[in-house]
Amino acid sequence: MEDYLIRECCNIECPTKGRLPARIREIFNKRFDPSADEIYWTHSLKCVPFKDEDINKEWNASAPHCKDYFTREIQLIPSECLVLIPVGRYALTLCRQLLEGWPLSNVVPIAEYMQAHASPDSEKPFNFNDKRVRVFPFIHPSHREQVLKGHESLADIEKSFAETIRTRCAA
After folding, report:
1. pLDDT score recorded for residue 100
2. pLDDT value at position 141?
3. For the segment 41-57, what is each residue's pLDDT rounded down to a tens digit?
């Protein structure tokens, strides 16, 4: 799975819309090699369910283990300033648990969180060990159309987050 995702991110051709590597490349407005670039990314849900209807069951069973792996991964990143980009509600829930003690069983509604944190004033850094961490969530491509119905402003919020991330990464 990891080799496939690295190939997709490095692919020069236009990525397939609706796929996670395409969404990541869209956010950063460039292709990149996640195994060698300044960008590090990981799956929050390490066990990918075979069917969408299994995801809550998989999350409840896997989340505590995923959190342990995610915590170790974040600790291994040498940078003192991190920008975390959770893609989807499960990744956001994992980030909130790690940084705020949010319960893993209480999956964060991504639309609600994005709207509450849309303004630059609401962007607060979190302290995690010796790191300053900022969180910019994005809608998972597999649920994008569904989430945007009735929440069209989320697309603008994502654009604003992407611009902020690009600015921080270029600095």
Report:
1. 92
2. 79
3. 666 665 655 565 677 78
How many Å apart are CA 133 and CA 26, to the nearest integer? 22
Distance CA 69, CA 50 (A): 21
- Through-space distance between the first and last CA atoms of the chain, rounded to whole angstroms: 32
21 in Cβ contact with 142 (< 8 Å): no
2 band by pLDDT with thresholds 50, 70 and 90: low
Residue 127's pLDDT is what?
Answer: 92
Kindly report the length of the chain. 171
How far apart CA 154 and CA 138 sit, in angstroms, is 9
Q: Which residues of 56-92 are buried (b: 16+ CB within 10 A; e: fewer)?
A: eebbeebbeebbeebeeebeeeeeeebbbbbbbbbbb
Three-state secondary structure readout of 43-86: CCCCCCCCCHHHHHHHHHHHHHHHHHHHHHHHHHCCCCEEEECC
Closest CA to 68 of 27, 97, 100: 97
How many helices and strands, by DSSP H and E, does the chain display?
A: 7, 3
Q: For the chain, what percent of residues have pLDDT higher than 90?
A: 8
Cα–Cα distance for residue pair 46/66, rounded to 1 Å: 6
What residue spans define the domains of the chain? 1-37, 42-170
Query: Mean pLDDT, to the nearest integer, of 28-32?
Result: 66
